[in-house]
Design a protein that fits this description.
By secondary structure, this protein is mainly β. It is about 0% helix and about 55% strand. The strands form two sheets. Strands 2, 4, 5, 6, 9, 10 and 11 form a seven-stranded mixed β-sheet that branches. The protein has a four-stranded antiparallel β-sheet with strand order 1-3-8-7, with no helix packed on it. Strand 5 and strand 6 form a beta hairpin. It is globular.
Length: about 120
């Protein structure tokens, strides 16, 4: 199982970024996919989830209305569109899935929101 995030970077407050996670090694369209993030000195926190058929999504209150999670089951990818970014969104962002009872993680991609 492999998860590889991309798309992070430095952005000014109010800006946008789109993160992508490429996956392999499991039946992608059978599993819900999550995004998490971890800010310096803080616990890793859940950000968003999308079910396998894209028929259900949910978001942490801190990002609701600003972030959108989506997936492409043909390409085995899951994206996170982040708009109206705030300095408090600065963190390493991870995609994740619980595959056969085990939570698996990518290596993360850094998002820094700063002027």
């Amino acid at each position: 199982v492999q998860l590889v995030e991309s798309g992070g970077g430095l952005v000014q407050p109010g800006g946008s970024l789109r993160l992508s996670c490429a996956t392999s090694g499991f039946t992608f369209n059978s599993y819900a996919m999550d995004w998490y993030r971890q800010a310096p000195g803080k616990e890793r926190e859940w950000v968003a989830v999308i079910q396998s058929a894209s028929d259900y999504t949910n978001y942490a209150d801190s990002v609701k209305g600003r972030f959108t999670i989506s997936r492409d089951n043909a390409k085995n990818t899951v994206d996170l569109q982040m708009n109206s970014l705030k300095p408090e969104d600065t963190a390493v962002y991870y995609c994740s899935a619980r595959v056969q009872g085990r939570r698996v993680w990518g290596q993360g991609t850094q998002v820094t929101v700063s002027s």
